[in-house]
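Case study 2.
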Amino acid sequence: STLSAYGLTVTANRAEYGAGFHLSGIRAGAAAYSVFRENIATAAGGALLAQNPDGTFSLHHLQFVENAASEGAALYLFNDVDGEYPLSFSDIAASSGPSVSVRVSPGAWMHHVSAAHNDGVAFETDAASATAITLEWNNTWDNTADYGGALPDLVGTNGNGSADPDYAGVTRDGNADNDLLIPGSNSAMRDAGDPAIRDLDGSAADPGHLGGPDAIDQDYDGDGFFISNRDCDDARGETYPGAAEIWYDGEDNDCLGGDDYDADDDTYSIGEDCDDADPTVNPGATDDTADGTDQDCDGDDGPPGGDPTDDSDDGTDGPTNDLDLDRDGVPESEDCDDSNARAFPGNIEQCSDRVDNDCDGFVDEYDSECVGKASTRACSSSSTKGGPFWLALLGLLGLKRRRRSRT
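Prediction:
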């Protein structure tokens, strides 16, 4: 018989075998662009059981979510000697039990399949199937195991990888409403497939149901950019080619790639780069001049190592390492308090902030700029008695202009 099953949602079916679909003796056709969710088989084939083919019946661009079975929660394949039930460009997530189980099917062929976040092994076969099965360009992530049964670990062979697909949402709770299998902007599956096969945007194929030349072009998030327009996250409306990049939010908002935690693109992330807005400043830069900038992020301005420019406080430091720690435009050697940007020579005394703003050695009511101002407690009244007057005078004599001098 011939069967075409396109654009279906197969939900919440129960059976001993093949709860969602039970295919047998199919001569031609395909199951594609469909979603199998929350189907449970007590024995095998939670979402789909396929056996005894009479011809090629393709399984492609499918999503299997929250299905369960003792064997083959997503797919149980039996007696496919010549690979006539090929599975490709599909996503399998949140399964309970082995996701794909293959029996007596040495010719089975599966490629560009993503199996992630499954409570069970992703792919497992019997000994008869393991001898000649073809598994290539698949991605596995966060499963109980990636490969099992008679299969060896295939990660790193035939294009098979293991990396986070960065789905929009997957929660293993039996409720597929919580799951959205759209890869995010940081998905490791992007362009990770066979480079000889192209996606709709012209790049190398992605594993999963949005990959390959036959994927459905969609704009799920409604931002005006389709898969073919290189939208790198079709689940987030603020992420698309040309969008404003929001640094350090974990998203590649403009779809240009690169590290979201390296704004100046100098290969050093914000956690280790002391100025992530300047590509000339990073731990790998050369800082051979005391110019007011710590280019190599070592905490000192200038070269390290016991010379007059290294700020090592070893008795050899000189004026060539004259920092401006508070960035008020006045170097440390000329600033009376280089830890306070409100204090530097030439500044206007504020009279009430308890800071020697103009660095003349006098603070607030004791500064000539403040005497007589209503906002101060200045000692300029002619009615002041002798006691307070002399106390004020002693205060003037006792004050010292504090400057940091360097040896």
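The chain has three domains: 2-181, 261-323, 339-407.
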